[in-house]
Amino acid sequence: MKVLVTGGSGFIGSAVALHLLGAGHEVVNLDRQTYAANPATEAELGKRPGYRLLAGDVADPAAVAAAFAQHRPEAVIHLAAESHVDRSIDGPMPFIATNVNGTAVLLEAARAYWNGLRDRDRFRLLHVSTDEVFGSLGAGGRFDEASPYRPNSPYAASKAAADHLARAWHATYGLPVVISNCSNNYGPRQFPEKLIPLMILNALAGRPLPIYGDGLQMRDWLHVEDHAAGLAALIERGRPGETYLLGGGGDIANLTVVRAVCDALDEVRPDGLGARRRLIRHVADRPGHDRRYAVDAGKMAVEIGWRPGVSFPEGLRRTVEWYLANEDWWGPLRAPWAERLGLAS
Ligand SMILES: NC(=O)c1ccc[n+]([C@@H]2O[C@H](COP(=O)([O-])OP(=O)(O)OC[C@H]3O[C@@H](n4cnc5c(N)ncnc54)[C@H](O)[C@@H]3O)[C@@H](O)[C@H]2O)c1
Prior knowledge:
Radius of gyration: 19 Å
CATH topology of the domain at 2-186 and 221-249 and 294-309: Rossmann fold
Mean pLDDT: 95
Number of helices: 12
Number of strands: 13
Bound molecules: nicotinamide-adenine-dinucleotide
Distance between the termini: 45 Å
Strand order of the largest sheet: 3-2-1-4-5-6-11
Shape: globular
Order of helices and strands: EHEHEHEHHEHEEHEEEHEEHEHHH
CATH superfamily of the domain at 2-186 and 221-249 and 294-309: NAD(P)-binding Rossmann-like Domain
CATH class of the domain at 2-186 and 221-249 and 294-309: Alpha Beta
Structural class: alpha/beta
């Protein structure tokens, strides 16, 4: 298959591209190369046969139309997005431009292209979204495909808007759209503003490990390679017009995650000054911080035959080892993550 991936230079997009290339598919990556696109990731992808980068904005109708016309993909996996909640609090407009307008532009270009296809039934557009669109859970229960939308951050609201557009383009125009909503991802090549790589790199440098509020916010964690495998299965077996939820099957408190990062690092690279848990500091909570997310991924298991394969302890150990072995990847990045973002409310 030839797959147009948007946002393929980012954290999840690069895992998706590597997964598809490994399975013998061709990948055309439309990516604007924002701060979240690490040149080292692009260098790695660029060596792989069957891969091609189109540096362009998903919100630019001409660039997106040209990507369809010149490359004639059989499927699209749409991941391009502004993705960091704290940045969306300080400056929401880029989230509207890329996540909302960009999705609308992509859907319109896909519709025009799909209308001209001879074999319209085979085409799929997979819109990749997050469980954050459903808002916060109480102490019990899990999100499923029938959960109501209740986004609480500008990021989550922009993704919710994009989900609604994707759904409407199927219902109104018949475009074969599939929607996925996934829990928190972790793994290699994640920009170090996100919780797990931020904690790994801060702990490695002996810097404080800031925990928002009491740290008892619960999150469901999925290894990025499991997510990539699920998305690859969805472009083959997902039913148009359907939504599928993906998650790791457990929910873990942020504080527990950070302690686990400290312990994993202590094991593989001990710090002469003592256990790294000593670096944990509680700081002001994120405004609008959701308390709990948990995902019921039963539909993915029953209908698609997908289940997560990497347990959290195993995935975390592998992630810590990846950051230790790949300083070339994160070393050249300036350290904007050292500053606290997301207090602008
Ligand atoms: N990270 C998670 O835990 C998670 C969980 C569920 C869903 N998602 C969704 O998965 C997708 C990918 O997330 P990620 O964590 O890999 O994000 P990321 O920030 O690591 O990567 C985003 C990529 O999109 C590109 N991009 C940004 N704006 C663009 C534009 N206007 N045009 C073209 N490319 C643009 C960036 O250059 C970057 O390569 C997003 O849609 C996100 O909402 C993420």
